[in-house]
Amino acid sequence: MKRILLCSCLLLNTLVFSQNYQWQWAKSGGGNARGLNESPDAYWQSSEQIFDIITDSENNYYYLATISQGNTHIAGQPVTTYNGAVAGNDIAIFATNCEGEYLWSRIIGGSQQDTAYKLAVDNHGGIYTAVNVLNSAYEGSNLFPPRFSDNNSLPYTPIDNSQISEAWKTSFLLKYNAADGSLLWRKNLQGAVNSQNRNANAYQVAIDSNGILHLMVGYSKGTHLNGAITVPDTFSTTYQYYIVKFDVQGNLQGSPIVLPAAGTFLDYHTDFRYNENLNTYYIAGTRNNGGGTFLPLAYNNIAIEGRSYVLAINAANGSERWRKEMNTTDTQFDDSRIYDLKIDSNNDIYIGGKFFNTGNAPLLFGTHTLSNNLTGNIPFILKMNSNGDVQWSKVPSAYIDPLVATGRHAAYEVALNGNEVALATHGRSSVWDAFSIDRPQGHRTDPVLIRFSKQNGNVIGLHDIMSMPGFDDAITAVTADNDGNYAVGGYFRYNLFSNNPNSIPTLLNTAGTGSYTDFFFAKLAATECGVPLSSKAFGKTSATLYPNPSADVVYIDSPETILRYELYNLLGQRLYSNTLAQNEQRISLQNLASGTYFVKLLTRQGASIIEKIIKK
User: Fold this and answer.
1) Other C-beta atoms within 10 Å of 517: how many?
2) Number of domains the chain is built from
């Protein structure tokens, strides 16, 4: 009997401890210089940071970042940048495997500020991004024209600004080889342009299951894409917006769809997504980068009044299906921003962002009221169904230090991971349900990843990164890999992982000071590479227990119905078992002494799940 109990204990430990998320590795990159409009105290959209992370079928990670000048490197590998401006960035695309080993990097850019915000992968060796560049390099100027690979760049600009030249083009769709970062092709999105009609804007690229690339582009007057698009002369200072589609060879597919939009979709604050199941495009964004002026924007001749919005659009013809806006009657402090939108396999929609709350008036998302309990900058995440109806929303439960309410707080990318959803954010003194981050006054914000139940929005984990006091640092990008682990990225100003969790070396800013940001990328994992989280259970189901640790009760979140549970101590001895009603999916710990226990959950389908719980 003792031998059986011992084997049971070893099995419990093997299965359970692999579920504990912890920081597994971390790397950094960047240069000495500042981004455009960046100050030593203020993060800006041009600051060095990770904008996007994606994973392919082989569990390699691909990152999209901004990178400045001066001793530039990625994971310690020196890289050459091309920006000649006093404060300007290039685009960096690079790859690692899931163990954090550097694979390759590609720098895109030239003499001015260059931008790209999202990547797409086809799982057949292709990585895609839409980029916008600005060429100010003329022959003999000692400036670089924008380049897309070692042997592919724009020509120098002509002296005559009215001369038609490829040098004036600004917007491109690029495909790189996922194996080594080599450029496979470059699609010029504009036609014949000179300096007067050179402006265009390519937004984020989405790829469907058939390998068709979907892209929203804003065009100035002229004829583009070999005559497929003709923009009237009235669009000399504003854009006419189109949806264009290409195959994986860069060939135009079908006829571009002109969108009935008037005004400005801000490039940094506009997310473009495609739901193949519903043949629906989503555009989510913000009408202002900061300050008091909102840029005008209308769709179907109906003005968007809120600062932030989500549009659902019929992908067949561009007509509007529905819209949601973020509004407040306290217009003096109307500062809401949507930073990301993701769609899951159930067609549910998740958005992350922030809003400013004075406590004088609630903030509405459509007809849904976001929490009005806290003041200052409030990060949020919410879930909608495919009709735009809010299912739940979540903001911090409290601030431990009330002075933190005036601090800089936001939430950025969202990642979907089975039954949970993660939010990239930061914090100093924030409480999220049973989890919290508490740094001393003056410390400022540290990077934070928060995990939520997709079903009800309950917080099931908070994972922070310690950094140097006095600087704002954040996680800005996150993705879930094939194993159910997380790859994250963001920005930091001085050092990061200063408490060396899991023996991770402290990351240091390239400049050695806290003046301007560098970017970082790291892995939060519950298993080793190639070991999926599903292997932790006897069946193919899963469950999350929260809060954990807990003093009195833990709740069960599972897609399957849990019929009963058995509780074991560390010796593998069963202490007791109990049945569970469908509406009472929780376990009481009140009669237990403080310590570590194992719980075996038995589902209606006959599967078993083993989890570790800690009684405080």
Assistant:
1) 31
2) 2
